[in-house]
Structures are given as structure tokens and as C-alpha cells.
Amino acid sequence: MMLLELKHIEKKFKTPSGKGEITVLNDISLNVARGEAIAVVGPSGSGKTTLLNIIGSLDKPSSGQVNFAGKNLADLDDAELSKTRNLDIGFVFQLHHLLPQCTVLENVLIPTIPFGSRKDSSDAESMAKKLLERVGLEKHLDYFPAQLSGGELQRAAVVRALINKPKLVLADEPTGSLDRESAENLGHLLVKLNKEEGTTLIVVTHSLELARLMDNVYNLKNGTLEELTMT
Description:
The chain is α/β, with parallel strands linked by helices. The protein has a single domain, classed as Rossmann fold. About 30% of the residues lie in helices and about 30% in strands. The chain contains seven helices and ten strands. The protein has helices spanning about 50-55, 80-90, 105-110, 120-135, 150-160, 180-195, 210, and strands at about 1-15, 20-35, 35-40, 65-70, 70, 90, 170, 200-205, 215-220, 225-230. The strands form two sheets. It has a six-stranded mixed β-sheet, sandwiched between helices. A four-stranded antiparallel β-sheet has the order 2-1-4-5, with helices on one face. β9 and β10 (about 225-230) form a beta hairpin. The longest helix is centred in the last third of the chain and has 18 residues, at about 180-195. The two termini are about 25 Å apart.
């Protein structure tokens, strides 16, 4: 069953002079099944983050259609889009974006606040602790971000992305700021949680090592998307 359908997505931006347009994404169509893990690779500036932002409803295409969980995102108003982003889509970025004044546990629980978690607060905290234990952070619940390593910060960010049991996790260069060992560990963790939680995973990455861990890999170049066969 398809979770995500991109139909003829195009994205244009105004040139700095404002007199012309640059086409970043050109007629992109893609189907992603529930539980699938895919990677999008490509050179810097090719539009990978733009594509991820459109999928996550952080940006809108110039033309084309994004269907997510049976809904056309263009049909949703701002409040419905915000709720979808909070409850059904988890985000992991290259920089963890944890709040420095909050503990690890508090940071993980932040997404459960705006629209209310699917469980009550005690259940949400229990789930947060279980997920943190699964990623090896059970002894760091009361630590602040400044007390964690880069790899630990990203593991906490992954748990935060999963706390509302989203249908889709979008990861934008999640290993880009990590050393090789930490990057490898995080990549395997993402795939493990993808399989165990049944959450669909889309990763944008420069790392072919991370891309090889996914079910399917696509290359974004010159505005078009093509499937790659990894060896």
C-alpha cells in the first residue's frame, strides 16, 4: 500500500534579479510504500532538501501533487498541515535542533505537546524512555544537550522524531555532522527502527554508505529523479 505519491512535481524559484526563474525540480513522480526505506542522493544544490521539504509540507510545489496517507496535501489548510507534520511526520535534520535548556527526555517529549499525543502524558513519557533505552540513552534522560556527544545528540533527535509514532520519518543529511563511526552507527539505527516500527523512511544524504542501507536509492540531478542500482 502506498503511503506517499508524488505526481509531476515541479519547483521553481525566482532568480536573484527577480527577472527570471530557476527550475530546481522538474516533473518528479515517485511512489513510496508503507514501511519502505529510501535514500535520495545527488550533488550539492541539486534540490534534495527542497524535495524533502515539499514531501514534509514545509514547502509547496510550483505545480504537481503530493498525496500523503490518502490525502492531497494541497487540500489541507494551515492548521491541518501543522497537525499532519506534528503527528504523522517525524523530522531529523543534520543539526539536531535540541533545545539547550531542556533535558534529553524533555526534548523528546516536545512534539507531544502542540496537538496532544496519541497517548496521555504518562504513556508518552513511558514510550520516550523505552525508545531512549533502545538507542542507548537510558542513562542520559536528565542530561542537557551540551553534555552529549554528536552521535548521542542525533540519536536523541531520532527518538524525538519517532515519539508520536509517525507514518513517515524524513531525515535530511542525518549523518553529515558526525564522524565515520558515529555516522555508521546512526545509519544502522535508522534502518533498525524503520523495520521494527514499520515507519516509512526517506533519507537525503551525500553518504553512499548510508544510502546502501536503504531498500531503494534515487539520484536527483538536473532536476530529475532516477532510481539507482547500488553495488
